[in-house]
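Usage

Read records sequentially. Each one opens with the input sequence:
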Amino acid sequence: MAAAIVDQDDIGAVRALEPHYYTDPRIFLSEREAVFFRTWQYAGHMSQLGRPGDFFTFAIADQNLFCVRDRQGQVRCFYNVCAHRGHALVAGDGNCSVLVCPYHAWSYDLDGALRKAPNQKKAKAFDPRGVRLTEVRVEVFCGFIFVNLDAKAAPMDEWFPDVEAELRAFVPFIDRLHPVQWVRVEENCNWKISVENYSECYHCSLNHPTFARGVIDPQSYDVRPQGHCLRHTTRSADLSRLSYPIDDSLPHGTEYSSWYLWPTFSFQVYPGGLLNTYLWRPTDTERTIVYRGWYTVDGAESEVVARMADQDRRTTVEEDIRLVESVQRGMHSRGYKPGPLILDPAFGLNSEHSIAALNAWLMEALNS
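and closes with the structure output:
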């Protein structure tokens, strides 16, 4: 899928979105259908589905779903609703050999086909072969499970070209990673404000001193669209100033890179091949929950990962909460008029090309 292109001859006309895109509940409802239900959304991790019959539940906006590993080892996703009269089939996570609805005991195979409905032989013209759970498209991306409610959507490789190969180059052991910690952060802001804040580093030097001085080299920071991905690249901070010890023998051991996948997930690899992910879960127009995931090989304990998760929570997380919540309040100000974006033709740290791309992708979705 083609990346959004900003016309460099029209730079002066590119402005931030109007405030109602962040405050109007009608926009948020439109985004459910146009954005969240038509894009690749993170569901879970393969480590949660180690055996046939393992399952876990999750939600995309108001749609409840679950993933399960079938008997052939394939990962499947279904709407979490019985085909009989709409009761939820499963809750939480666990393992089962057959999916049994707790309402009337209709049972389904792990591939979604109906096995049995009590007293079905007494119902005339009842054909169990015509009853299945409603299935959702699934892709496994470096061990991360994504789903798309749009059966016609292009595959992830078209949405996010080259990302899988780049991730594997930065984290050669990515298939062995397991999540070891999720940091849940509540932000009183629209999801797009949080995503925009993540997607530019124009504010980093002023607002994130630990990140800007102890993790990255701000002068080499760059963000560019790559399909419907925003690719962040930079060198690490000088090794003598890094806030944690690293293995610099990896091919990209002294680099930082992030791959934001429109609209609600991002991979970021810290120097030393340390993987962290972001997951945005909008709850309403002005509230968003952000989950920061941390990973180790085989889920082993790691003092470095624990230290980085704590450092991130005390610094970048707290700093960002203040920023995004202030911006959300600003969207309600009668004095705010959207200002021009800073679009440096050379891209770099102080350019807002990423914000222009996000806005273009949003308009593309809402107007399609």
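Summary fields computed downstream for this record:
- DSSP finds nine helices and 17 strands in the chain.
- Confidence is low (pLDDT under 50) at residues 1-11.
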